[in-house]
Amino acid sequence: MSLLLKALHFAADKHRDQRRKDSNASPYINHPIYVAQILAEVGGIDDLEVLAAAILHDTVEDTETEAADIEREFGQRVASIVAEVTDDKALDKSERKRLQVEHASHMSAEGALVKIADKIANIRDVSGNPPANWDHARRVEYIDWAEQVVCNCPKVNSALERCFSDSLTSAREVFRSA
């Protein structure tokens, strides 16, 4: 349990000045906590290293954190999972998105769990509390792309996969009625 609390403290510190792009400008840390919550509540995941990786999944990509920092603080397994779900920000956005789709099929089971939970959280946000500057077309484009990523992930947890499918259906219903 101390690993999980350490990850929460670490991520909260790293994301302390960040906000989500939603219209409420929610504290960024809410997102990785929600990803871990989805893994635990929906997926039944109780592996503390996977949950810690979920909490840390955006630190390397979106803060000044280095992969070596994650390995030093949380061990090789957590660092490996985080690395699997981290985009290379040196690449342009379209290339990062293409690579997520391409790399999804090669993920470990643990990486796929975090990736699927992350996409569930993001789809729920995009449909319920989207970034203020995202129009209808951008929101639809996002969920279509997220579906490609998750469809390419290894089948690792039927409850998470059903939840993703249900979230996708709900989002599309919201978009149709908008």
UniProtKB/TrEMBL annotation:
Pfam families the record matches: HD_4
Superkingdom field: Bacteria
SMART domains, A to Z: HDc
Coiled-coil ranges per UniProt: none
Keyword Hydrolase applies: yes
Domain HD: 28-123
Keyword Hydrolase part of the UniProt annotation: yes
UniProt keyword terms in alphabetical order: Hydrolase
GO molecular function: guanosine-3',5'-bis(diphosphate) 3'-diphosphatase activity
Designated name of the protein: Bifunctional (P)ppGpp synthetase/guanosine-3',5'-bis(Diphosphate) 3'-pyrophosphohydrolase
Species assigned in the record: Pseudohalioglobus sediminis
